[in-house]
Amino acid sequence: MASTISGRRTFFTFLLICTFLSVSTIKVCEAQTKPPTAKGLSYTFYDKSCPKLESIIRKELKKIFKNDVGQAAGLLRLHFHDCFVQGCDGSVLLDGSASGPSEKDAPPNLTLRAEAFKIIEDLRRRLEKSCGRVVSCSDITALAARDAVFLSGGPEYEIPLGRRDGLTFATRNETLANLPAPSSNATTILNSLATKNLDATDVVALSGGHTIGIGHCNSFSDRLFPTQDPVMDKTFGRNLRLTCPTNTTTNTTVLDIRSPNTFDNKYYVDLMNRQGLFNSDQDLYTDKRTRGIVTSFAVNQSLFFDKFVFAMLKMGQLSVLTGKQGEIRANCSVRNADSKSFLTTVVGDMVEQIIQM
Ligand code: HEM
């Protein structure tokens, strides 16, 4: 009898330990699937003020991509270019003004798709009709990029919202300094992204954005002329020279030859076959620090998806404006006319700083 009781006790203790372990393991896993949420952003931000926000955007984009799948790539890149320069504040959307040429006019942004800007403004107008002027252009851009990934076959994930639109745009030099060139090697890319708290896994995962979309010949012609980059697969290079016969052609080609319109892990398979388009892509497989990560994503798509989501959540929260900072633009390409919002922000910030002192 005594031995049965002690046997049961052992069994229950074992169960308890297992439950404890599995609960704590889940907690650890949960903690790893999402980076910390920036102060002022939340996953329920528009639940009351614009409950249909996400369904409106998803429905519109589904229609748009059905007609032209390429627009998904344009929207994903737009969010990246917004976040890397001055944070995800919609500054890339602003037109130039008397104060000077805008971010949009800086070289890396000249190949952003004009249609992407139009899609964001159309969505803003539609959302204003449904909810009033409550949703920021920077949040619309973030949601459009998120849906671009999912609707092209990639992972589905929630993003925190509540970004506010910036009142200024970056200069040409700031823009150039924050968006690495496609000719960069892995060291340059790793160092550049490290300044934004993005590590090697984030770098390789985010570069996987190149699983969809296109590039212009002049973004990689340095690998073809005067001679072909020896790292590049010979046949791949020969075919690229057919698309780009001289180093001044303005043609385009796909970034991922295996599945150019599908968000999958084939970009990493391309790299392993030395068929990456930009040096910044291919060198991730050459460099010892990132080669293993490339291989791990090439053989395991769900690992890539998990790491991509994690890195996108980090990227999507870079230097966000929240609370009373910035504004909600009435037109994504211009700052609101009433400089009141600008003054309110500046004065508000000063008051807050004085209170804190
Ligand atoms: C890490 C450094 C990166 C470099 C050097 C880089 C460079 C480039 C270049 C040169 C193009 C082609 C521009 C053209 O010739 O038209 C391009 C396209 C693209 N990039 Fe990146 N990129 C980087 C990171 C990213 C990230 C983080 C994402 C998103 C997560 C991204 C998404 C895209 C997409 C989707 C396109 C295709 C755009 C289209 O078809 O309109 N890139 N990138």
UniProtKB/TrEMBL annotation:
Disulfide bonds join C50-C131, C83-C88, C137-C332, C217-C244. Residues 40-336 form the Plant heme peroxidase family profile domain. It is an enzyme of class 1 (oxidoreductase). The active site is at H81 (proton acceptor). Keywords: Calcium, Disulfide bond, Glycoprotein, Heme, Hydrogen peroxide, Iron, Metal-binding, Oxidoreductase, Peroxidase, Secreted, Signal. Residues 1-31 form the signal peptide. Ca(2+) 2 binds at T211, D256, D264. One of its GO terms (biological process) is hydrogen peroxide catabolic process. InterPro entries: Haem_peroxidase (IPR002016), Haem_peroxidase_sf (IPR010255), Peroxidase_pln (IPR000823), Peroxidases_AS (IPR019794), Peroxidases_heam-ligand_BS (IPR019793), Secretory_peroxidase (IPR033905). GO terms for molecular function: heme binding; lactoperoxidase activity; metal ion binding. GO terms for cellular component: extracellular region. It is found in: Secreted. Binds 2 calcium ions per subunit. Its cofactor is Ca(2+); heme b. Transmembrane segments: none annotated. Ca(2+) 1 binds at D82, V85, G87, D89, S91, E103. Its main location: secreted. It catalyses: 2 a phenolic donor + H2O2 = 2 a phenolic radical donor + 2 H2O. The record marks R77 as: Transition state stabilizer. Its EC number is 1.11.1.7. Removal of H(2)O(2), oxidation of toxic reductants, biosynthesis and degradation of lignin, suberization, auxin catabolism, response to environmental stresses such as wounding, pathogen attack and oxidative stress. These functions might be dependent on each isozyme/isoform in each plant tissue. Belongs to the peroxidase family. Classical plant (class III) peroxidase subfamily. This is Peroxidase.
